[in-house]
């Protein structure tokens, strides 16, 4: 159903340069898909938002962020601790290039490989080159296959031209998809002709010349939205807005968990390819921009800020230190003797 109000303008969230041969075309990335529905928030009976708390599986003990490290599970079930330096060295080299290395027919890419779509818009003065590439690809029926590094994660992408617009589709890797044989599907057999004709008649009765896009609606989300709005109008089960509790550790945990998930495939390939080798001495990627350090004493700083200071001073063993240990290591020698 059409939206009642005009949608808010969409902003570009990333920019890069399409490169192949001697061609370079700057583009801006826009998300081509929106969230399916508003997420339900977890709150208590008074409407206070709930925070995440990590616990140890063996005894249920709650853990702070300073007690948590990254662990990579090998194929034989063992856990290998990955330090911050090793984690950074495994990340791909930072680049703004969308490096296309070949063009193939679109029909050769099964829909199951597509993950997430993005619209690409010409940036700077690349409008003419953008249009030439889009029209050339569309007329030839070819799509570009390449790689890009976005937010410290390397993606496989298919560059598709449609209606004069370029769209990038992130792709699953070959080993992520199962084959029909892997899930136990039997080999196809030739059915009797009479049954084929009967099924063809049933399918033919439902054939339409054009897909009605309004049929692609989320009835569950619409029903949930209608329920919430109806109860809000009636004043039923409405809680007053409660101030969200500030929990820096919880926020950091969520961000860290997301980063581990993003790079797990990269770590798997990296560890498998260099088993027995020492980790790279220097990270090859730029770290995400750090928040401004707060003013005040060292005790007022977060563990992340203390860790960055320790990295600048090249303190050994810093990746395994909690906040208290980092604080002790960073204190001037005179101050530590007085304590």
From TrEMBL:
Q: Which InterPro entries match?
A: DNA_bd_Ku70/Ku80, Prok_Ku, Rho-like_N, SPOC-like_C_dom_sf
GO BP annotation list: DNA-templated transcription termination; double-strand break repair via nonhomologous end joining
Give one Pfam hit by family name: Ku
- What protein name applies here? Non-homologous end joining protein Ku
Please name the Gene3D superfamilies in this protein's record: 2.40.290.10
Keywords from the UniProt entry: DNA-binding, Membrane, Transmembrane, Transmembrane helix
A GO term for molecular function = double-stranded DNA binding
Name the source's superkingdom: Bacteria
Show the ranges annotated as biased composition (Basic and acidic residues): 300-311
Can you tell me where the transmembrane regions are? 12-31
Q: Where is the composition biased (Acidic residues)?
A: 243-253
| Region (Disordered) location | 229-253, 274-339
Q: Give the taxonomic lineage as stored in the record.
A: Bacteria, Pseudomonadati, Pseudomonadota, Betaproteobacteria, Burkholderiales
Start and end residues of each Ku domain: 60-188
Rho termination factor-like N-terminal domain sequence ranges: 297-339
Query: Which PANTHER family would you find in this protein's record?
Result: NON-HOMOLOGOUS END JOINING PROTEIN KU
């Amino acid at each position: 159903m059409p939206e009642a109000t005009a949608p808010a303008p969409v902003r570009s969230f990333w920019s890069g340069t399409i490169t192949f041969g001697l061609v370079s075309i700057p583009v801006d990335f826009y998300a081509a898909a929106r969230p399916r529905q508003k997420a339900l928030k977890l709150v208590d009976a008074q409407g206070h938002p709930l925070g995440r708390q990590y616990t140890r599986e063996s005894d249920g003990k709650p853990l702070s962020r300073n007690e948590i490290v990254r662990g990579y599970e090998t194929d034989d079930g063992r856990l290998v601790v990955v330090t911050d330096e090793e984690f950074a060295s495994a990340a791909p080299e930072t680049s703004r290039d969308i490096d296309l290395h070949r063009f193939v027919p679109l029909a050769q890419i099964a829909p199951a490989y597509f993950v997430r779509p993005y619209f690409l818009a010409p940036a700077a003065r690349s409008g003419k080159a953008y249009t030439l590439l889009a029209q050339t690809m569309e007329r030839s029926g070819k799509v570009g296959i390449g790689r890009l590094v976005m937010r410290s994660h390397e993606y496989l992408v298919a560059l598709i031209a449609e209606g004069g617009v370029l769209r990038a589709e992130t792709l699953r890797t070959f080993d992520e998809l199962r084959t029909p044989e892997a899930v136990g599907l039997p080999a196809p057999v030739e059915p009797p002709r009479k049954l084929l004709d009967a099924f063809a008649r049933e399918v033919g009765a439902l054939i339409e010349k054009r897909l009605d896009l309004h049929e692609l609606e989320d009835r569950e989300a619409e029903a949930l939205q209608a329920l919430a709005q109806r109860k809000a109008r009636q004043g039923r089960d409405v809680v007053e807005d409660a101030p969200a509790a500030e929990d820096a550790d919880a926020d950091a945990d969520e961000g860290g968990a997301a980063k581990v998930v993003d790079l797990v495939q990269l770590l798997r390939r990296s560890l498998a390819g260099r088993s027995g080798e020492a980790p790279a001495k220097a990270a090859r990627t730029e770290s995400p921009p750090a928040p401004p350090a707060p003013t005040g004493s060292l005790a007022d700083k977060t563990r992340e800020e203390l860790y960055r200071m320790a990295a600048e001073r090249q303190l050994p063993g810093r990746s395994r230190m909690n906040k208290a240990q980092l604080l002790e290591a960073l204190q001037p020698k005179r101050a530590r003797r007085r304590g």
